[in-house]
Hints:
Elements: E1 4-11, E2 15-17, H1 24-27, H2 39-43, E3 46-52, H3 53-62, E4 72-76, E5 88-91, H4 95-103, E6 109-114, H5 116-121, E7 128-134, E8 142-143, E9 155-161, E10 167-172
Parallel strand pairs: 1-6, 1-7, 3-4, 3-6, 4-5
Antiparallel strand pairs: 2-8, 7-10, 9-10
Amino acid sequence: MKKLKVYIAVSLDGYIATRDGKIDWLTGFPNPENTDYGYADFLATIDTTLMGHHTYKDVLVLSETFPYPDKTNYVFTRDSIRTDTTFVKFISKDILEFVAQLKKENGRDIWLVGGGQLNGALASLIDEMTIHVIPVVLGDGLPLFGGIAMEKTFRLTGTKTYPNSVLELHYTV
């Protein structure tokens, strides 16, 4: 059975992007050691990505080529007539039911890339989270879990501090 994992960065005040969806505060944050914050190791544990349509559009802007061509990639959208691409399948049906079925499949784990609305919609199915807290205060923005309508408790299972003051938090259910 696959696990649904979140691997994400948040501002010190809990936002994943500014109110207008920008992540300049993150991409421009000093990283003199050029660390990947465990990203390559994490990526090796997954074979599937899930993202909302806004996050998908951001991914396309941030990279010249689609960054996950070796994964099965699902993008959730309310537009039921989207045409699948070479690397992406668009999903407009029941999110919880679809992801619950994915978790029952064999293979490596599933990365819930985001954004906040999708994180909130799938909170009940999340098994693990790796959150990188970037020491920047935005004051306002898009929360890590948007529109969440339930409470879920996680257990802290590990921490790591990077030389540039980024804090990695690892949680499990």
